[in-house]
Amino acid sequence: MSELALSPNQETFVLNLGPQHPATHGVLRVKLVMDGEYIVSAEPVLGYIHRMHEKMGENRTWAQFMPNTGRLDYLGALSYNHGYVKAVERAAGIEVPERAEYIRVITVELNRIASHLLWFGAFVLDLGGFTPLLYAFDDREMILDLLESVTGARLTFCYFRFGGVYNDIDDDFVTGTREFIKRLRKRLPDYHNLVTKNIIMIKRLKDVGVISAEMCRKYGATGPVARGSGIDYDVRRSEPYSVYPEFDFDIPVYHEGDSMARYMVRMDEIEQSMRIVEQALDRLPDGPVKAEKVPKIIKPAPGDYYSVVEAARGTFGVRLVSDGTNTPYRLKLRSPTFSNLSLFGEAARGMLLADALALMGSLDLVIPEIDR
Amino acid sequence: MIMGAYFKDLFGGFWSLIVGLAITIKYFFQPVVTLQYPHESLKMTPRFRGHIDLVADPGTGEPLCIVCGMCQRSCPSGCISLKGEKPEGAKKKVLTAYTLDFTRCSLCGLCVESCNFGAIDFSKEYNLAGPSREAYVFDLLKRLKDRRSNADADA
């Protein structure tokens, strides 16, 4: 932290970062008060692509909100599908067959790997390295092809249904996924040699943008941001859902709190997700992929329901208030990136502009999910 | 000691760059994975969800649709509109118009799922480019007739 940035009598100027800026990956505007190259204060300005998803939920049936969930966080759409169907299933008391739960876990974890790979490429691109992006997209493409062969879509998935999934997975998908995992296991050391151990990368990230565990708690940061600051919190472990308790996997936690720690958490999570997918494929049970007794028109009993899942970026919560009709009375979405971005203003104070952009990249922002 | 750390850092850093370069050179000599798009194109998977299309009765060639309107009601964005009439003496309604406003469609598949008669299905078309917004309001009945006449011409 610089002396300059902390002395208030210096002349400052306001710098607009965004709304169209290559490093913000979307329509995010940050109002920066600058003292030379140092940031005095940063204020994210939101709302440029607000689409009223929550209000839209109140004007359509429970099932009709499904396509919206895929458009919150378009990089991890399946986690958001999962969060919503889980909340409605809990509200309406729908049982999900075991095979469907396994398929959900497999596809969600594949989606998580795809999301982290894209983040990896885009983050290194922010720091000035172009080549890793191409390798990451090469691997991500394989996941998208696999997911396309079961879900029918490549990005804005709408695959899960109340009480199951849209359609069953086939043998091609199972063998394809196994091959992909084998391939990614071979590629990951290349990523680490090319990027993680790179001297420029280390100098840009190590001890830069330190976020304390306290700050994470204050702003409600979750996911890799919190785990990079030493908070051992993952919904898959602390509030297990679906069939996650049956799998053996670790929650990577780093205590440094700097950009490098958040980077390492995500790279380790890719490995853990591969472990989960492998175990799920080994134990995949036979049976139906859709519950039989799901009513065509869902009318949950009046009440207040909340359920959370671990998305690629953190804890995604859905709060439903039902008045017993075929449309939700209130639908509140708690999206992880909003909380993760909120701490940017405090964390970026006193930082160099270039370092603050590295910090912003390490938060893994997806703007449509912040604005909803 | 500080001098030693300095040189260690220098050579360590230099070595990390060499390792990175070795990886990129390794990939330089590997086969190209890019598909040369306009010259070759991908075949869509059987489950690919394009816009919806009417399914014809394999016997008569007429659409299977019985104009119940379930698809229209299940659509979250209201992009389906259909009309039907009951001819004199016929038992069932006959479809006279089926329009899909693809500009509003979000490809969720709820309409196909809600259809109890298997009368709509996803098309595999993905090369959709048009000069105007009106180009995306599809007359699915006309598309079905075109497909049938194309098939007749082929046969």
- What's the SSE pattern of chain A? HEEEHHHHHEEHHHHHHEEEHHHH
Task: Let me know the largest β-sheet of chain A.
Answer: 3 strands, antiparallel
Can you tell me the overall shape of chain B? elongated
- Name of the level-1 CATH class of the largest domain in chain B: Alpha Beta
- The number of strands of chain A is 8
- CATH class of chain A, please? Mainly Alpha
Helix content of chain A: 40-55%
Largest sheet of chain B: 3 strands, antiparallel
**Element pattern of chain B in H and E:** HEHEEHEEH
Strand order, main sheet of chain A: write it out: 1-2-3
**Structural classification of chain B:** alpha+beta
How many DSSP-defined strands of chain B?
5
Corresponding CATH architecture of chain A:
Orthogonal Bundle
On the 0 to 100 scale, the average pLDDT of chain A is 87
| Beta-strand proportion of chain A | 5-15%
Quaternary assembly: heterodimer
Brief overview, please?
The complex is a heterodimer of chains A (372) and B (155). Chain A has 372 residues and is α+β, with helices and mostly antiparallel strands. Helix content of chain A is 48%, strand content 13%.
